[in-house]
């Protein structure tokens, strides 16, 4: 086997938000994640530690971070920073560094209805995939701060799963 020695799973996903309490409310009250604990603040005023270790401005302050468990597995590490030259725009998928977090649901129609009832912006209607991903339906939605999330569902599996069976 080739690749990163010892790789066994994703441990956590980290992202930065403009308002940590708004993010906490969304992740817990809307998505149903479990708040675990908080850390911070962290700052290093005496040198390049923040730049060298976190790739942020040397005078950046990680004001606080919260950890969340979602669906019993994935852990979100959610940061709130203050930093000189900080960019407030959320990248689109087409931007370098663009990203989204995909959440699996059993019933995508029920999940979409739930999000809409709570005022969450859902982008369009669920789309049926084709080709190797046939059997999957997906739809994007936005967190209150504009970050992209996706719902995916394929209760009968995807075509590439069935092809190998």
Would you kindly provide a written description of the structure presented here, covering whatever features stand out?
By secondary structure, the protein is of the alpha/beta class. It contains 4 helices and 8 strands. The chain has helices spanning 20-30, 49-54, 108-117, 159-163; strands spanning 13-16, 34-39, 61-70, 74-82, 101-104, 121-128, 137-142, 148-153. Strands 1-4-3-2 form a 4-stranded mixed β-sheet. It has a 4-stranded mixed β-sheet with strand order 5-8-7-6, with helices on one face. The two termini are 23 Å apart. The model has no long low-confidence stretch (mean pLDDT 94).
N-end to C-end Cα span? 23 Å
Helix and strand run: EHEHEEEHEEEH
Low-confidence stretches: none
Strand-pairing-aware structural class: alpha/beta
Biggest β-sheet strands, sense, barrel = 4 strands, mixed
Give the neighbour order of strands across the main sheet: 1-4-3-2
What is the number of helices?
4
Q: Please, what is the average pLDDT?
A: 94
Radius of gyration from the alpha-carbon trace, in angstroms: 18 Å
* Percent strand: 25-35%
Helix content: 10-25%
Shape: globular
Number of beta-strand segments = 8
